[in-house]
Amino acid sequence: MTGDPTPGAMAHGPAMPEESPLAMPLQSFETWSRKDRYQRRNPDRHYTPWLARLLVFGGGLALTGVGIWQMYAVVAVGGITVLEWALLILFALNFSWIALAFASALVGFASLLRRQKSWLSVPDKLARRTAVIMPIYNEAPSRVFGSVAAMIEEVRATGLIKHFDFFFLSDTTDADVWIAEERAFLAVRSELPEDVRLYYRHRLKNTARKAGNIADFVSRWGGAYYHMIVLDADSLMTGELIVGLAAAMEGDIDAGIIQTLPLIVNRNTLFARVQQFAARIYGPVIAEGLRLWMGRDGNYWGHNAIIRTRAFAASCAMPDLKGKPPFGGHILSHDFVEAALIRRAGYAVYMVPGLVGSYEESPPSLIDLAARDRRWCQGNLQHARVIGAKGFHWATRQHFATGIASYLASPFWLFQLIVGITIVLQSKFIRPEYFTSEFSLFPAWPRFDAERSLALFGATMLILLAPKIFGLLLSLLNGPERRACGGGIKLFLSFLVEVIMSALLAPIMMLIQSGAVFQILAGRDTGWKPQRRDDGSIPFKDIVRRHRSHALLGLVTGISAFLIATSLFAWMSPTILGLLLAIQVSWASGQLSIGLWLKRRSILLTPEETTPPPIAVKANALSEKLAARGFDDCDAMRVLHADEELRRSHIEMLPQAALRKRGQFLPERTLAEAKLAEAADLGEAASWLLPRERSVVLTDRALLSVLARLPSGTEGAAAPMARADRGRSGSLPQAANP
After folding, report:
1. Max CA-CA distance within the chain?
2. What is the pLDDT of residues 604-618, one digit of tens each?
3. Structural contact between residues 168 and 181, judged by C-beta atoms closer than 8 angstroms
4. Taking CA 488 as the corner, what is the angle to CA 487 and CA 494, rounded to the nearest 5 degrees?
């Protein structure tokens, strides 16, 4: 067995504390009574930011009106056709989206020009207990345990560790990763000081995914904690911020959720560094605008936030939506809905974007982003079933509308391009009816106002880029930040690289998101795959297979546009270029070498790369140490067979099994029992068992005893190789079958 000997689970007490149940009544979207609403203790704190909302929504509406009027003037020359009406409507939908974003960013920019960043002070003492929870799902144990160990060290350095308990809430389905998690947990906990409380729980059935994972914790152990800080598997938070958030919750009794703005760190591929730079330079402007108009009617992004546990339990148990997925079933983007429900219950939800010490990571390539984005797309479109729920604040409905519009924008843009091309085709190849049946002294010429069209296009691009320009200006005006980004020239070059990459990626993402929307409308559900978090590249053949249709579409569109009219080709050139280069851009996005080459030349450099946050340095070092000890490499059956102490600890951590009723037989268990009984040794058993049967063995105390009694055999050392062939065999030899 690789790694260090595994200490017993009882070295620091049970794997989980004694249960402290907290009722989570199921909420309703159809009924709601105001009388059940929480009565605020400090109503003076709950202000409504009318001025910011007027500037953002009034300004966005006014700008949209001007844009629509200008577009109408473009297409109405000589009369307006049905297709031109369709083009005008699609333009209005797309333009309103970017106009609202511009107005919000403008307000945020103006605020950041005159305001220092927000921060929370570290208190000398706390009165309440907080649970710091990290839901995990088939993650590399060294990464997640190293991150939490680093956070524990920092919280302990504040002298307030006694107020915090740390939890790994595992929904892992891979048997080998599950046992690797337990090994890492036992090893890490055995080395922690006695005043640190670290716990681990594995769910055998991951009902309702992450939302169900958190709900299970709250309903069983939540009664012991006034607050919980929710992390993602890639989250990092400094000890000062964790303690400061707990103090902020204690000081604001009416707060239900306080959300931080995580910065992206630890990323090195080209795509990830582009996202890291954009989040660092442009993110604060966007977040500040959101903070100003949202006030205490804010949103929740599912992690790096602190939540009042009892308020969450009393108001955030979500019902499944009626019908089948993708629009029915459990809600994928649960965080928006949880914010809506806790806000409906009377608690404040707000964001403090300027806090220092909240970090996360990002997908390493375009394909990885697309896989995650597909799940988010389905979750956001599900919100169309929730947006009209009883009792929701209008700001909450705006959050839902924004999420829905962010994905519908892609098919709207695609339809706008199609309609525009159709109009050009019509004007070139279909003979116009110059004199209609209505009396007129002049013919109805089918034409656009070219000069006004060009001006409108330029204004639209400027409005689209304005939030990025605002972020760049703020960084250039901030001396320490400018120098940490490599200086003014390098910062501007980084801005250009990010804009070019975004322009190339935009049409590819348009097609990917449009495809996702069409799949969801057609009734296709998404799966739940673990997110790839490393910096490894994707095989080139997989990239070609994923993007060949995009490149082919770009080629056909480019040739067609050039043959129709050179002006059409010029108008569509950014979109055509992005699609033509889809394979190359996607390949380059995941390349570690390109990202590091730019980093060495201070391009896309962020202050967190120039001076890495100590928490990130510490977490990386601890993760590497755990990986070097072999905690990521685990054949579950082999290590449980070889390590009696680990096996005993594993059995102690299993939940109490429900009694089987007479006459009920689980097929996987029956087959697993038969294969274990027939196997001559461990290697043979490992080669026969299918993945689901292996999982059954690991959850069954009786079958684990049978496993332990098997001889190691000469095949035991070959178990990892046999494991690779289980999907092809997984059955008894022919002679042993009935």
Report:
1. 101
2. 999 999 999 999 999
3. yes
4. 90
